[in-house]
Amino acid sequence: MTLSQRLRDIDWIDVWLWIFRILIIVGVVIGIVRKLFFGAGTAYGVDDWLDFFISGLSQGGLYALIALGYTMVYGVLFMINFAHGEFFMSGGMAATYLVASTLAATGFMNEQPIIYLVLVMVFSVLTSMSVSLLTERIAYRPLRRAPRLVPLITAIGASFFWQYIFRGFFGSAVKAFPVPTILEGRVNVLGLDFLKVRLMVIIVSIVALIALYLFVQKTKTGKSIRAVAEDKDVAALMGIDVDRAIATTFAVGAMMAGIAAVLWGLVFKQVIFSMGFVPGIKAFTAAVLGGIGSIPGAALGGFFLGVIEAVGPPLILEGLGAPGAHQLKDVTAFLLLVLVLIFRPQGIIGERLAEKKA
Amino acid sequence: MANILEATNVTKRFGGLVAVNRLSFSIPAGSIVSIIGPNGAGKTTFFNCITGFYQIDDGDIIFDGVSLKGRSPDKITRLGIARTYQNIRLFSQMSAIENILAGMEPRLHSRWFGAVLGLPGTRAEEEKATEEARQLLRFVGLRGKGDSLARNLPYGDQRRLEIARALAGNPKLLLLDEPTAGMNPRETAETTDFIRNLRDEIGITILLIEHDMRVVMGISEDITVLDYGEKIAQGEPAAIQSNPRVIEAYLGRGAAGAAHLMVDTTEAA
Amino acid sequence: MNAIDWRRAIRIGLVLGVAVLIASVIGMVQTFDERDMIEDILTLGQLLLFAPAVYAGYSAAGKSEERRVAAPPLLAGLLAGLLTGVPAVLLVGLAGWWTTIRDYFVNVSPQLIDILTFGRGALQGSLMLLAVMAVLGLIGAAIHLIPARVRRPLVNATLITLIFSLFSDVPLNIANQFLPRDIVRRFFPTKGVTQLAAVIVFALSLAIALWWEFSGRTRRQQRMATITAEQRRRNSLIVLAVSAVLLLVLPSILGTFLTNVMTQVGTFILMALGLNIVVGFAGLLDLGYVAFFAVGAYVTALLTSTGDLGLGINFWIAMPIGVLAAVFFGIFLGIPVLRLRGDYLAIVTLGFGEIIRVLVRSDLLKPIIGGAQGILDVGRPSIGPLTLVTPQHYYYLLLAACLLALFVSWRLRDGRAGRQWMAVREDEDVAEAVGINLVGTKLLAFAIGAGFAGLSGAIFGSRVGSVFPNSFELLISINVLAIIIVGGVGSLPGVILGAFVLVGLPELLREFVEFRLLIYGILLIVMMLVRPEGLWPSAVRRREMHADEESPPSVAELEAPRHEATQPMV
């Protein structure tokens, strides 16, 4: 073969992608090396790194809870439920304005902190579920057989609709989320120093994830959801009510989002109508990281993303000498999303599926 | 006769499943060759390996002196291989003529700025292409249906349009995946004649996957039989008909009346 | 059929009633109430409150059929109208009993209750509201009883009057150009129209509509039947010439305010034409489209700005560089992402858009592009001795740019590139198998779309005179997407119509600003459910979007391998 022929046979896009990959890897390595061995940027001790890690872990728990909604709906409908972040927001907003602030004002919160949390959470979950079921019924169900981009567009519409409905209900101000005093301060567990809230978030999210996994694997409803995810038509022939299974999927996903919303309130101590967007995108990132459609994948992806996001900027970006590394935290998550989708679309632990369709 | 396509030890796996196993296979230029085999034997998978839809795991496919390994479908098509699909895959929202024009892609060279600026070369190419597309439409018997949407055409017309689209790129090798599936005996006979004419008049080499034994036995010069991804027999139609392994693969071991059935089809053809 | 579906009547009444309730609770009614439509008679808020009752009555009474027993449909209309008022009355009651409700729902204000009760106290006002809604429902139902030939002109004239008073800014500004102030005042108070003007408009439009109904339509049909091809061609040439002249003199008719609105619309038309190529022609959903707009704006601003960060280069040199930068950026981003399938592409482009947004604001790039402070003193283009300053000047610049983009879109659509895009949109695998280079084809769409957006951004920065990060929010991407969806995906006239509806109208209704995105959200959903092909669809899309309704899925769709869906990309 002549040289010109060989040159023509090269896939220049592959070359470009390889350059991209190498640049990223080189950047990451240089950043880490400079940070750890040459002390670039602020100096952190072991405790600081542990702190980053733990806050990343608890943040990751929140992402994991939200990511479940994306992954379950995708598993069943092959649709990215863009409005899922709003399901999360709706629970947090409604619970804060209508329940939490009242209970805090009457002093009930600190008298019965556990009942308080349960009440707030139940209300949040119920709101999220109602919002999600309404959305599914009105904006998605009539479009089951439409071209793929159609439900995605209604999902974008639904996302804006709910954001601005809740803004209209409760106003556009930031609202403080009342945190019971027993959750303030730090606690020492197994020699590790946790912020109490962070520890609680980690525990609650893990328990919720396990419960959800068991629900999907063991119960009859869970099995019907899995059957519908496998093949809607066959499931319908088997006597499964497909619409109901799909609605259940939405409800369960929204339930997790509702729980996450209260935990989010505990950690960040405030809610606002626009709080759903960024966590929504990040949770989607987590779902993709874990291999979308897989429940354990979403959980692992969530924790992974949380940790990367917490540790990445101080470790890599500061190492590279970027000013204001904390501002770029969101970029880390989005960049990770882009990289994963481009280079490993099946996710970190997702199995490799058949190559191509014909 | 030189071989236009030569496959050696082609292997394709999906996870644990070996869909095509060490298949060696060659097509002499200007011939009509068929691949038959029971459902799931790996026929369509092999097609997909040739056209680049699947990357082969092992072995090599040489077309016209060039290895197809690692090439993308569009590049392979540009080398001169065109195909049709088992379940018709036309651009259903495009008109018949647009479908054929899309099939002409390998031969078109105009660039986008030519269209924007209205350059004479671009215009001439488009006009010539449209004219050729109309001829092709007539050739496959769809005269006057150029402006109807592909999805609105009757089934048989869709099959023919798909062949026209495949021919539009002036391929050297045409892969037909069950071209007579779903047709009645009269349409089947017409299609068979049509395929034979293609080779006789235009001189295209044809590789055929077909279930209808009348068609296969009637027009093939060489038949390869696949079962579980492996080649179990190859030869002229008459030899294949009497091959015990083939009969076994189709009807199971010891099936009574197998020979009778094969003879029956031969008579009909 | 004379039977009235009572359950349907009740459901319609209640659903619309809840809609009225929500519109009240989120503050829409109150905000809109500040906008007069017809002086001393009707505000926009009242329209929002009352129109649902009329509609409920109209649709509860069933299909229009003449000569039938009047009582049951009228009763159904009355009931539906009444029910439309019930949730709002419940709100009034709730607000009276639960005095701290405003701590929870910020927009349930005393003013809102005043509007709902006509300022007459809870009990009397509630009864009055119910009575009014019931009567309106009755009127809605009674519309069916009018003979069709009168009904149509009447309904049309009413709608025209309402639209005229809603967009009174347009006639007001035009009138201001030509008429003395005190005469204009007689028809247009500060907001809305006077009763006199409303009566005149109503009478005029009714007269024209009646004429059309009784003689105009038949005359036109006769003319259309006798017209020759030659005449028809001449007619369309005349139309073309008239619209060209109109476009040229428009700024001097419209006045500064409206011309400014037009430049705003033009900016979005330009962007929407670009996104239309990406989404409409090639079927690639790009949610980070604003990034290209930002690149065009920033590059041009940096090159032309006379401030600290800028280079002070001539605009006409800087603009093409800005456009090229956007194109280059489109290709740079496009190469890695274009192998992704549909919805994944949407999310990745969204991610890219967000990365750009964060980066633009960050300290990292602050020394170069000014961070949150943005870039000031962006240079203005000049032609000979004339420097473009006023909206009128920019109107012509944008008009030229839009016509260029329109021309390019049209030529590409009808050429080989358009065919490739359509094929890729229809079936990627087969498109590749007929020899179309997928990445190249998609990249072309991406690059041209980016170029249009870059051009739009370059002109935008110069027109506004400064460039700030908050001009490049995700909302812009969504706005542009909404334009092409509402207008008609893939349809060039649709895109223009969409920009006027979604950008022009809100500029005229500043009261909408707060609810703009809410309305966009509703529009996106409603359009997809009811009219997925858009207001002015391209011929192809109309067929495509309604494909499933017409026939069962084709064999190919049914037999398409299942794993396709579970597999993100190749």
Fold and architecture overview:
The complex is a heterotrimer of chains A (358), B (269) and C (570). Chain A has a single domain (11-343), classed as ABC transporter involved in vitamin B12 uptake, BtuC (Orthogonal Bundle). In chain A, helix 3 (46-77) runs parallel beside helix 8 (196-218), helix 3 runs antiparallel to helix 13 and helix 4 crosses helix 11 (242-268). By secondary structure, chain A is mainly alpha-helical. In chain A, strand 2 and strand 3 form a beta hairpin. Chain A contains 14 helices and 4 strands. Helices cover 73% and strands 3% of the residues of chain A. Chain A has helices at residues 3-9, 12-38, 46-77, 84-105, 108-111, 113-140, 149-170, 196-218, 220-230, 232-237, 242-268, 277-289, 295-317, 329-343, and strands spanning 175-176, 186-189, 192-195, 270-271. A two-stranded antiparallel ribbon of chain A has the order 1-4. Chain B is α/β, with parallel strands linked by helices and 269 residues long. A 6-stranded mixed beta sheet of chain B has the order 6-7-8-3-9-10, with helices on both faces. In chain B, strands 2-1-4-5 form a 4-stranded antiparallel beta sheet, covered by helices on one side. In chain B, helix 7 links the parallel strand 7 and strand 8. Chain B is globular. In chain B, helix 3 (96-103) packs across helix 5, helix 3 runs parallel beside helix 6 (155-168) and helix 5 (120-139) packs across helix 6 (155-168). Chain B has 2 domains: 3-80 and 171-267, P-loop containing nucleotide triphosphate hydrolases (Rossmann fold); 93-165, no CATH class. Chain B starts with a strand and ends with a helix. With 570 residues, chain C is mainly alpha-helical. Chain C folds into 2 domains: 1-145; 251-547, no CATH class. Chain C contains 27 helices and 4 strands. In chain C, helix 1 (6-25) packs parallel to helix 4 (71-97) and helix 4 (71-97) runs antiparallel to helix 7. Chains A and C meet through helix 2, helix 7, helix 12 and helix 14 of A and helix 14, helix 15, helix 21, helix 23 and helix 27 of C.
